[in-house]
Amino acid sequence: MNLIEELGKNYNFPEKQIRILKSLEFRDLTARELSKQTQIPLGRLYEHINNLLRSKLIEKSKKKPAFYSFKNKEEKIKTFIKDQFKETVDKEALMLSLLEKGSGDVKLLTTREDYILECRRIYNEEDKIFSIERASTPPYYFYPEDYADYKKVRKFVKKKRELVLGNDSLEKLYKENYFDNLNKQKKFIGITNKKSLTEFLNTMKKALGPDKFKKQIKKIIRLVNSKTIHCKVVKSEFPYYLLITDNVVLICFVSNGKAINLLIRDKEITKKFKVFFESMYRDAEYVSSFLKKFL
Question: Does the pTM of the predicted model rise above 0.85?
């Protein structure tokens, strides 16, 4: 087993990212050249390239067309391992701190089933929900409620990134439960990243076609201008998803398609997260004005 395969094995790299690194091992390539050599569709390729760029394993040239490089791979891999170690230590320190300071319950959710179950429980039990979307994902109510249209959009999204919620009957139950609670006039207040939202909307347009897309945008604008749903956009990108209520915080970290989920039931901690959310929300741009650019 060579160095790249060993890296992938130990750090759970998706097979497509291993293919990209192997292709760049001996020469720089453009995205089109990478797509051809790795047999990864161009639309799906960029998600994996961006993950590798964020990991600092590869570099992107400034000239056009951009070339991607894996030069000095040994040094890059050493730096990556050090960064991963630091990130792990930081996450463990955060979790230990929460356990030591909190008087409530802190639970690590190790499976997708546990994560979806807790999300559904939160939606069912809570009347006011705050959320910060991680980079590359939109608020869930941006998806069409009609299941056939929803599946079309999810199919296109899957071409660009891994679906943390999956794409099966369990995900369908999550979707139905989410929209049921949305229609019960519960309050959903969210923050999402402008760049990720733009990419999602362009993907949804391809999936639905121009006419259905415009209808969906108008529906979203009506939703976010209602009394119960509010959303703002920011330039900042978040490596995690946050779900916050008066009683609970759910944190979802995603790295290379793998999720680490932490559920916290502690009112003192939830207060701190709400203060953090409110400080972000206060200076953000309302999404309705942003959405009108797509009509």
Answer: no
